[in-house]
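Quick one:
INPUT:
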């Protein structure tokens, strides 16, 4: 995990990222605190990029991908920040040779195996439930459970999740046609001797293909943030994306959020990844605590009409039910008023005063604030029993229209004075 933040006003945008990266292994996790997550997307123009979540994409480190793109794009410039973002996404999409078909097959195999295993575990739980109740389970019952569970997962993916806007409508059929044999082999390996009907097999194929076509993302995804100025942009803006993988030369991604400064919106503070400490600073309350308070109050407001009505002896059951519904409606309105009042209080007393000041900050203060908020998240992890998934040196950059991409703080794995050739070669095409 990581902590990253973008703070911007009309003059500039400051980006800050920690250096912790978590590597999974069979016996646990290993955390390193020397990862690079913040880069200049162009050597010549005011655009930067941050990466969070998975440190690699399709088994290639993001740092390598970004620098390959940067070398290829060279001195290309665009009118808007959106065009820079679209160009980078297009670089990943549409058959980039960095991601060969064998790697795409492996990606499909791993994800299909993981989801099919999840389905099998679901089947096992239902079989065990019948065994616990009845002491035995028949082959016909197992067949029916298997069919029902697969259909439930199929229906969920078909009805609940929509196709991603960037994915062609025929992508599911294309995946089945191209990788159907691989999907069938995964089915045989996962479900082993379980009887799978032809209908269930077709559903499993569509389930697998849907994983790479629909708006359902695993936890092991990458987030990227592209920020700065286009040639015709007066004020800074940013765009962020969730990116998962590539199958059949189509990138699975979606835009997460965007932010821009204009004459009406003069400042913004946008955290990414582990954002609870920034939210606490901005809104005056920890988001977990806020959810606990509102959840408990919601239960109270929902239960108290019933408690009151049940203690009124002179009413019959019909009258009690009518009064209960009336009080519940009033209770819901009171709770909504409470939420509205608290939200306004947070906005007026915590969020707005900070945003007003951020709108006036000079570039160096923007950088200092960005670094401080990432440090706050790191410090919280350090002094609690939570895993220190945020830590290490904090890289900070400021992007402005006039000065471009400027490093305020940056770690190197080498000594600058021993490597003058690195800096002399930096702008060489």
């Amino acid at each position: 995990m990581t902590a990253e933040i973008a703070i911007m006003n009309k003059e500039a945008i400051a980006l800050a990222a920690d250096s912790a990266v978590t590597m999974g292994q069979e016996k646990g996790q290993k955390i390193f605190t020397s990862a690079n997550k913040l880069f200049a997307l162009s050597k010549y123009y005011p655009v930067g990029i941050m990466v969070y979540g998975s440190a690699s994409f399709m088994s290639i480190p993001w740092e390598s991908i970004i620098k390959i793109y940067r070398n290829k794009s060279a001195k290309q410039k665009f009118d808007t920040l959106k065009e820079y973002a679209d160009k980078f996404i297009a670089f990943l999409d549409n058959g980039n040779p960095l991601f060969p078909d064998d790697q795409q097959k492996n990606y499909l195999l791993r994800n299909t195996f993981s989801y099919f295993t999840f389905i099998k575990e679901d089947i096992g739980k239902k079989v065990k439930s019948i065994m616990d109740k009845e002491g035995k389970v028949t082959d016909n019952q197992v067949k029916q459970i298997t069919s029902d569970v697969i259909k439930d997962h199929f229906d969920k993916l078909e009805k609940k999740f929509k196709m991603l806007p960037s994915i062609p409508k025929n992508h599911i059929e294309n995946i089945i046609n191209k990788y159907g044999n691989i999907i069938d082999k995964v089915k045989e390996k996962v479900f082993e001797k379980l009887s799978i009907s032809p209908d269930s097999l077709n559903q499993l194929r569509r389930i697998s293909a849907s994983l790479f076509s629909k708006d359902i993302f695993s936890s092991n995804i990458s987030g990227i943030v592209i920020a700065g100025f286009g040639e015709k942009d007066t004020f800074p803006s940013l765009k962020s994306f969730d990116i998962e993988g590539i199958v059949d030369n189509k990138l699975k991604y979606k835009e997460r959020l965007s932010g821009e400064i204009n004459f009406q919106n003069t400042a913004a503070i946008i955290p990414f990844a582990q954002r609870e400490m920034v939210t606490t600073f901005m809104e005056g309350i920890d988001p977990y605590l806020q959810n606990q308070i509102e959840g408990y109050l919601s239960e109270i407001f929902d239960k108290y009409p019933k408690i009151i009505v049940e203690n009124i002896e002179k009413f019959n059951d019909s009258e009690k039910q009518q009064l209960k519904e009336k009080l519940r409606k009033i209770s819901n309105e009171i709770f909504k008023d409470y939420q509205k009042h608290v939200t306004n209080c947070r906005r007026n007393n915590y969020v707005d005063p900070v945003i007003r000041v951020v709108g006036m900050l000079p570039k160096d203060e923007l950088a200092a604030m960005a670094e401080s908020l990432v440090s706050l998240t790191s410090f919280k992890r350090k002094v609690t029993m939570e895993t220190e998934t945020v830590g290490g040196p904090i890289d900070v950059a400021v992007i402005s229209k006039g000065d471009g991409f400027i490093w305020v703080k940056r770690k190197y794995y080498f000594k600058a004075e021993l490597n003058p050739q690195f800096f002399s070669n930096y702008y060489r095409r």
